[in-house]
Amino acid sequence: MKISYNWLKQFISTDKTPQELSLILTDIGLEVESLDTVQPIAGGLEGLVIGKVLTCVQHPNADRLRVTTVDVGAAEPIQIVCGAPNVAEGQKVVVATVGTTVYPNEGEPFKINKSKIRGEASEGMICAEDEIGLGGSHAGIMVLPEEVLVGTSAKVYFKMEDDFLFEIGLTPNRADAASHLGVARDLAAYLRLPLQMPDISGFKTANESLTVAVKVEDTLACPRYSSVSISGVTVQASPDWLQDKLKVIGIRPINNIVDITNYVLHDLGQPLHAFDAAVVGQQVIVKKVAEGTPFVTLDGVERKLSADDLMICNAEGPITIAGVYGGKNSGVSSETTNVFLESAYFNAVSVRKTAKRHGLKTDASFRYERGTDPDMTVVALKRAALLIQELAGGVISSAVSDLYPEAVQPFDVEVNYQNINKLIGAEIPPAEIREIIVALGIEVKAETAEGLSLAVPAYKVDVTRECDVTEEVLRIYGYNNIAIPGKINASLSNTAKPDKEQTQHVIADLLTANGFLEIWCNSLTKGAYSKNEDEVVRILNPLSSDLNVMRQGLLLPALESVAYNQNRKNADIKFYEFGKTYHLINEKYVERPRLLLVLSGAQAAEQWNQKAVPVSFYNLKAAVDAVIGRLGVSNYQTEEVADAEYAFGLKYFRGDKTLVTFGAATAADKKQTGVDREVYYADFDWAVLLDVVRKNKIINKEIPKFPAVRRDLSMLVDTAVIFDDLKTIAFKTEKKLIKNIQVFDVYVGDKLPEGKKSYALSFTLQDEEQTLTDKQIDAVMQKIMSNLAQTAKAEIRK
Q1: Those residues with Cβ within 8 angstroms of residue 175's Cβ, 6 or more apart along the chain or in another chain
Q2: Would you say 575 and 535 are in contact if contact means Cβ atoms under 8 Å apart?
Q3: Are the CB atoms for 469 and 463 separated by under 8 Å?
């Protein structure tokens, strides 16, 4: 949002510099993103002075040139060669002295230097109006009145005051600050200055010859509708001061009527609409029309109206989309002589839905969507009518029509001084709290030693609770005035164990340390990604077809990120994401926290001494085991995934609770997201993991005093047998002495019988109370071999 420094000073009288106000605005919650100097015309007449032509003689070497001496207020007059036909002795003129940069209407700026023109020295330039941007004439130099003082700055004489433009990053909750008045209100509260409102006391109805009957059929969508008529206007260009005001904030002047409505909008924050009264006719009806009604808007586009769109209609039909956009033929044109002026308060939700439905964003809808001031409609209406009367020559030809059947009431809020100080974290005296609240325009209805009963103006749409008032107090008191305590008191509340955030940080640190990058994908995604139609959570007003449902899984949005990176030659992917999935189950909305790991590309970048090795399922399994191990989760079972979500994979589970499933992404999922390489991913049920971690017990054990031994077995097994099956059999055989089992070789090939594969396993055995003997070890290994052969049909190879 753009705010003019000079415009602000119409509301508050302050000697604060723009730079000082910039800091203040940021401190009170209106963050200034940039502060720029704005000049009314290019160059701002810098370096130009008023001079007097002392002598003017014919140039000895040129018929069309004159040699002049000009007094510019310096110690000595300067000589200037001038080609203007109207230059003469005794004139007061505008002079560009040596070193001045001149900004003509056409062409590039140029600097004035000492020079010789046809042999005669020239130390400046006597200016025409088009040469310095003050007009379009080039018939001759500008000749000023005799009373102008020599040496006066042209900038001062022509009242070329620089302005300063604040670019404010307005947050959606600060609808009350979406105007110069709104910003000035906050500054006035902070600086404890009076607010100077525009004078509308001169408003007076001249006659009632142009009275228009107004009817509001939908008072919910339009709680207040104010209007007035002005007749006998002349539509023409606005005066310079009005055009300059609009240009500074980036608004293109159109004509005096439209410019006035734009000016009042940015002045007071109240949108206005000026209709050609000839189009309006005798009656205005505010209502909704039939579904599919065609309507041509101001941009010439025909739109099909919804039955939920609030429209401004005349006797024949709709002429404007209320609060959003005007109709093609209802606006003010050069032929307009009578104006019907609207100033209304529309329901924010109604305007927001209509603007979104038709893809229209205007200055008016921006403000209506966030909430305008219901008490400003008549003030703004009278302000605009007086300006139209002044600048377009019209007369007010109707009484103000103000349909307001049920007034919007202020928000009643009870505040307690102790609660305010507790939330702020500082002791602010009650008198100062009260002073700030009153300075913000909030009415104190009743007061006790403990607190206040307040009536918050309706334009403060986000101040409806005690905590909101506390935020208002803190803004004006100053965030920087709250000392950071040296010691933070611990919370007395019971914190759930384990701490969700802390546990998440631990795993995030682990993954980051192992080369993973965290991604955040949008929770909104396309409906085509939904795997279970019965559980889809749909968005009622989607931004687009690509963002029309809540995600049911983390994978497909993450695969979009994989494709995006791979398409930009960043093919080696190690991603993780903590996120939620969303489901509609038994008419209830359910959120499920998940952790996703994604691997693709190479294990490490190719180097001169090593080739790039593609990632495999086992790289993913190592990452999964690292996460499970870091959380201290043990005693889980493993089985192959029988799930269409994976090309192949494994599942870790406890009882009926799945901890994680992981494996290779399917060809269908990769094709749907544009991925053309192998992708491995793991999907952790984070809620289940946290529940398991909560039940974990930490057991301390001494480091064993006695050595461990290793024995290896090589065996043939059926291809359907997996390592986890063999591991389970071995641990069931000997629970006490076996500490670890690893597979260190797998072979499948034509040298083996059909349907067989070779496994080589290592067994680590250890007794914590004594040194194992060969006899004990052999007995254990014999028992393991026997059970493997019996249960898994393993053939032990000698």
Answers
A1: 367, 370, 371, 372, 459, 461, 462
A2: no
A3: yes
The CATH superfamily of 42-157 is Nucleic acid-binding proteins (2.40.50.140)
Distances from the Cα of 270 to the Cα of 105, 320, 392, 605, angstroms = 36, 17, 21, 60
| 607 contacts: CB under 8 Å, gap ≥ 6 | none
Rounded average pLDDT over 509-513: 96
> Can you tell me the mean pLDDT for 688-692?
91
- For the stretch 533-536, contacts whose Cβ atoms lie closer than 8 Å and that sit 24 or more positions apart, written own/partner, are 534/584, 535/583, 535/584, 535/585, 536/584
Q: How confident is the model at residue 610 (pLDDT cuts 50, 70, 90)?
A: confident
**What DSSP state is assigned to residue 297?**
B
Structure tokens at 766: 């250890």
- Residue 384 pLDDT > 70, yes or no? yes
Q: What is the pLDDT of residues 117-146, one digit of tens each?
A: 998 999 999 999 888 888 777 888 999 999
Q: 411-481 adopts what CATH topology? A: Phenylalanyl-tRNA Synthetase; Chain B, domain 1 (3.30.56)
Among residues 379, 373, 84, the alpha carbon closest in space to that of 203 is found at: 379
Instruction: For the full predicted model, state whether its pTM sits above 0.85.
Output: no
CA distance 451 to 348: 32
The per-residue pLDDT for 292 is 94
Q: What is the per-residue pLDDT for 488?
A: 53
d(CA 649, CA 234): 79
Residue 162 confidence (pLDDT): 81
Please state, in angstroms and rounded to a whole number, the distance separating the CA atoms of residues 539 and 545. 10
Side-chain-facing half-sphere of 610: CA atoms under 13 Å: 8
In DSSP terms, 760 is beta-bridged to 714, 745
Evaluate whether the domain defined by 709-797 bears CATH number 3.30.70.380: yes
Find the mean pLDDT for residues 281-294: 94
Distance of alpha carbon 753 from alpha carbon 716, whole angstroms: 9
Helix runs in 528-616, H state only: 555-566
Which is nearest to 550 in space by CA: 521, 592, 582?
582
Q: What percent of the chain has pLDDT over 90?
A: 74
- The DSSP annotation for 215-234 comes to EES-TTT-SEEEEEEEES--
C-alpha 289 chain-centroid distance: 34
Domain at 213-403, CATH class: alpha beta
Q: Residues 454-497: pLDDT tens digits?
A: 999 999 999 999 999 999 999 999 988 888 776 555 444 555 67
Note the CATH number of domain 2-40+162-191: 3.30.56.10
Phi, psi of 157 (to 5 degrees): -60, -45
Dist CA 488 CA 406 (whole Å): 49
